[in-house]
Amino acid sequence: MLFEVMSGSLAPPETPGVCYRRWRTVAFDGCSSIKAPDRPRLRTVLGKSRNQQGDASYPALRLTALCETGTRGLLAAVFGSCSVGELASATALLGHLNPKMLLLADRGFDADTFLSSVSDTGAQYLVRLRSSRRPLIETVLSDGSYLTHLSGRPVRIIVATVTAICADGKKVSDSYQLATTLLDPVNDPAGVLVRLYHERWEVESAFYALRHTLQDGRVLRSCDPAGLEQELWSSLIVYQLLRRAMTDAALGRPGTDPDRMSFTVALESARNQVTTASGIDGCEINPTAPGTIGGAVPTAQMPPRRTRLSIRKVKCSTSRYAGKADDDRAMTSTNVVRLAIDIHDGHIAFPSAPTYTPAQDEQLTASRSRRKEQLIQLLQTVPRPLLDSPRDRSFPRPPQAQRHRRSALPVGAVRSTGTDRSRRLHPAPGVGRSSPPRTRRTHGERTHDRPPSGTSWTIMEGPRNPARLGLPTLPTPQSGQRTLSLGPPRRHRTQRTRRLHPHPTCPRIARFDQR
Length: 515
Hints:
Helix 7 (225-251) crosses helix 8. The chain folds into two domains: 2-261 and 301-318 and 327-344, Transposase Inhibitor Protein From Tn5, Chain A, domain 1; 399-434 and 455-471 and 494-515, no CATH class. By secondary structure, the chain is of the alpha+beta class. It has helices spanning 2-6, 40-46, 86-91, 112-120, 190-197, 202-214, 225-251, 263-275, 293-296, 346-349, 358-381, 384-388, 399-403, 405-408; strands at residues 19-20, 23-35, 50-51, 54-55, 60-68, 74-81, 101-105, 124-128, 139-140, 146-150, 153-166, 171-180, 308-309, 334-344, 415-417, 422-424, 439-442, 445-448, 456-457, 459-460, 484-485, 499-502, 509-513.
């Protein structure tokens, strides 16, 4: 494939900004803002992403690239559906790493298996870890970093707080936790590596040049999967050719950093040459002649990059990413007067983190595994009804209990229904399933129809059947349970004057006292 021929390193190691010590700095990242036409054939292959407003307008592709941070040239690239994550896509590009490279990556690539695969290629890495991770502290080094093991491999952890003091006096700080295979704190100080991690953002500038400068943010044109793939590969080839021409122009002036060359100037110069058909007559063109990329780019170098910061804004009104309301950064670009980097000792940064040796850590892991197995065995021996029926009223009632409230009560129980806690009475066992007395209201008061003579009633407080839940069943009235005979009905002053008395055998059973 033509892109494989054009891809690769563009500058020698002695070029400014290309290498850190003897390693060429490269970075992994993904871009999911490339849109494809909304056609059935493409939706079948790419699908459509969803956000809080529903389906997205166009199917999107995820482009994952391995980029050289010094020149922003592409070493390898792969693209496909957004359903495939960046980590899986980057794993397919690990074969392009070699022992002469230092990989920079963000928190999306901090999986232990991925870092182990990077180490297998012989390349070094400097990757930011998620703040929720707490690696084991084994040895604290002289610069505040500490050594640990990830997947059995030695790794150095750097915990730092970066504070930016803006021109208006405002201070903005953030914490970083970096993992690296550069274990020597003398040759690779922690403060130098924290500043080096900032070079990872060069891959974001490469995606911006490709998506917004070269493609101008437009939707791809091809409505066929094969044509869409060809269109995107052609865009990557054009991008790589422009970067190569820019790097050659920077090498013509020793000491020039290639990232100071303007991609927009190079693109416009290439368009002008194609429009005017320069060199079509077979005459050789001087690469540094006016109007060519080699002549226009060096004369229009960008000024030295200034240290600045601003908030990360959601530019699309229907974006699936919610804005951060608690971000204390300025809404507009603000110059940074001074940048302070504080390296924290591992014990100070995480005072609650235990300090175990590898042997002790293995013992703890085995102990946790045994406790888990014992808990599973215990849960398997407990009867299922006891696990499904919490008896404490402080716990929320499960939805299935709400559905079976009417069917869970036995005959001879009184349960509360309605908003006014009106009680419906059912005959006690041994009396027969006669209809309970109806409740009627007159002028805000409540009365009960007179039940049949000699009918006994038992009131049960609670919606569940004890026998249904696996609990011991209370004795029936024939076996000595005390019950009350209802006397003639009387009119109460209010709707809630009935009093419940605790039953002598169960706190969940109450007697109805109607006086």
